Amino acid sequence: MNATTPSPALAHSSSRRQFLKLIVLTASAGSLAACGGSDSGAENISTDTSYFPQSVASGDPAANSVILWTRLGKLDPQTDGQLRVQVSAQNDFSNLVVDESAVPVAAAHDHCLRLKVAGLKPGTTYYYRFLVATGNQTWASSRTGRTKTAPDPAANVPVSYAVTSCQDYIGRYYNVWAYLLQTEPDLDFILQIGDYIYETTGDPSFQTVGSPRSITFTDTAVAIQLGDATAPYYAASSVSNYRDLYKTYRSDPILQQVHERYSMISIWDDHEYSDDCWGATATYFNGREDEYNPPRRDRAEQVYYEFMPVDDPAVASGALNKDPATLWPNNVLYRRLRFGQNLEAVLLDYRSYRPDHLIPEDGFPGRVVMSEPVLVSILGQDGYNAVKANFGPYVDTTTAPWSGYLPALIPVLAQGYLQAGYAGDAQTKATDDLTGLVSAFVFNQLIALFNAAVAAGQIPGASTLPVIDSTTYDALPRGIAYLHLGKQSFFSELGARYAVVQPTFDLYAQYMQATGQYEQDPLGATQRQFLANALASDATFINVISTVSTAPLRWDLRSATSLPADYQTVFKPNVDQWDGFPQGKQAFLETLANRPGAFLASGDIHASFVTEHQTSTMPVVDFTGPAISSGTFNNFVESAIAGLPGLDATQKAAANQALVLGLDQTLQASAPADEPIIFADTTHHGIMVFRVNAAETEVDYLLIDQAAVSQNLTGDVAKLAQSFSHQRFVFEPQTGKVTRAN
Known about the structure:
The protein has 742 residues and is an alpha+beta fold. It folds into three domains: 141 residues, Immunoglobulin-like (Sandwich), CATH 2.60.40.380; 370 residues, 4-Layer Sandwich (Purple Acid Phosphatase, chain A, domain 2); 147 residues, no CATH class. It is built from 18 helices and 33 strands. The strands form six sheets. The protein has an eleven-stranded mixed β-sheet with strand order 1-7-4-3-15-12-11-30-31-32-33. Strands 16-17-23-26-28-27-29 form a seven-stranded mixed β-sheet. Strands 2, 5, 6, 8, 9 and 10 form a six-stranded mixed β-sheet that branches. β32 and β33 form a beta hairpin. α3 runs parallel beside α5, α8 crosses α9 and α8 packs across α10. The radius of gyration is 28 Å and the shape is globular. It starts with 7 loop residues before the first helix and ends with a strand.
């Protein structure tokens, strides 16, 4: 089959009437000889970017194929179109390997076109462009894209690439991308490992509201309204909402140059769908309402496939847009790509198959999740006695006298849920939450609220209830409630996804795993088998991509005597990442340790870390990369402190002093001895550049201060260069060790 002949399988596919097909173009020696330059003869070709408002892109390079992408503009939204594609080994297109005309572009997919060009030579740079007919023998051309096929799997050649994540657009500029274009023009490809877009139009908790770099949905009526009525912002929900995001991001001239220059290999994390999501469930309302929304998840995935140059093996029949039946929960985006003898890149999907966070955001702080008998069975009587002061007394409301309190306390708790914005049946939730083992501390709080209402005459005819006195309180059994895991309010991410108490959280996670009540497996059995197969690769190095970090982040506040006693413990700041699966994380690392030369690259946390995890065999290194432009981790910590309950202004200032000032050193000092954080930087944006050869992998962190990202430095070459610093590390495959190179 030559470059201008469609595959018979495509021509006769019964699904052609249902989906726009992914045209499979094959370049061959015959087409090289047969095709002359298209600029010759009577043809008139001129660049006109107005027809290609998001320019061009390429992705997923294999040894003999690559995916090409564009979006055709200037068409009626309901009208299909046609494009011509040209590929050449010369940047002047003087000798074409592909010249395919009349490629259909469907209005149903927002005129996005994704093409697989096969039959290419390994390790070869190609140039490509798209053309649209504007008259007889007259063509408007896109800008020229550059792409490079992967080396032959047996070729012993060096490979260089960048790993990037978290490129918020709102109020931020792509100085990091501009610097990469300036200093690393010849990279083989880019690994984009999540948060290519952010799904909100101006979340004040992390986005710059009122900036010229803003996003407005064309249809807010179908979006999810967040914030309050006086200052609303929106999260994408519809196909048009998600398309608005990609089109705005890809309107940026620097990001367009990135796609024109490098092939991009991408995997999603959470913001391509919804912040801190798991499966098809979002977390905006923290349990106040049900956020399980498979149609929204499918719409987000549909648009991702429309705009990202992804070679999905599940659609080998050739469809551009995914068959709806293969979207969530049936989608498979995790995959592996080979680059010569020295590198296998393995991209894992952390979000699609993971369970909910261990502590639910709507968890009742008073619910006891580990009773005294359970703790004794795990720790032994002596072990329990040694640490029981860290636990709290509880009552059993299914027994007298505590059951007699329920008719009074259930309405009090239900009213609290309604005041907190709960959209469900508050009476039923309160009944469920107060039935069984309940923290005596919380029980007394509810009694106090009831008694205050009685004293105020708000409950006519009612009498006050006796609180649990100190003698009874001290004699009660002690256990772990959500309160002791850090959960101090009804509907909140604090104490659920963020800022949990490390000792009790890890103990609870171990117990839930051992009893089969919670499976610490964010990958799922099928993807774990895929990883095992990938680790059998004979490549020198295997770069396993985890969209979220395995860095062991801790806040050790045991000596922070200026804080209340409840805060003088060790916290895990973020259990949305691998820290939320402590035993699962260790099993994951042990799997990687069995394969010398395997190492991790990760993102999501908006900070830079180099962690050397110790295992039963050899170390496993995780290179966690910074955000391109999204708010840095120390910004997150400042926001978290501001939201901590039970602290006055002086105590919040003390917490800020203990955590934010010197945060890098705090995290390094708080890390477990068997998981040392060799390098920490929580205040800079940037990108990681990897250089792999037969002997070692060098990793270069290109870093820019957080303040500089709010300024547009992309046109000032000298100032841009002065704004960056470098940190270099070398990973050696046989020992699994990493050393500083500067």
